[in-house]
Amino acid sequence: MAKLQSLDPHTPMFAQFKEKTGPIVLANTFFVPKERAESFLALFRRQAEFMKAQPGFLSLQMHKGTADSQLLMNVAVWESTEALATAFGSPEFQRMAAEFPDDIVSYPHIFEQIDL
């Protein structure tokens, strides 16, 4: 299973699930060794199809780092933290998440939009 690390050590993603708010953006940066990139994306596509079918899902994009970077970043928009937490906690999603190799590192964080 991928290692989950917090971008903000004072506010891990699981603590953010307790904040009842929305819409929200999940930004999840992954460190993926080059030799795992194709298999990671194949599994991620399966997860994405599952998530797209969940209540409260709005959109999803995947980005890759430039200049031979080993980083990928998923940006997903959800109606609420509750919807994301329910989908994330589902047994089917957890089974897929457990398939990621241990050398994948995930840095998920939940954000709200700021009007400028």
Automatic annotation (TrEMBL):
Record carries keyword Ion transport: no
Descriptive protein name: Antibiotic biosynthesis monooxygenase
Alphabetically ordered keywords of this record: Monooxygenase, Oxidoreductase
EC number: 1.14.-.-
Signal peptide: none
Superkingdom of the source species: Bacteria
InterPro entries with a match to the protein in the record: ABM_dom, Dimeric_a/b-barrel
One Gene Ontology MF term: monooxygenase activity
PROSITE patterns in the record: ABM
Domain ABM, residue spans: 24-114
Organism classification: Bacteria, Bacillati, Actinomycetota, Actinomycetes, Kitasatosporales
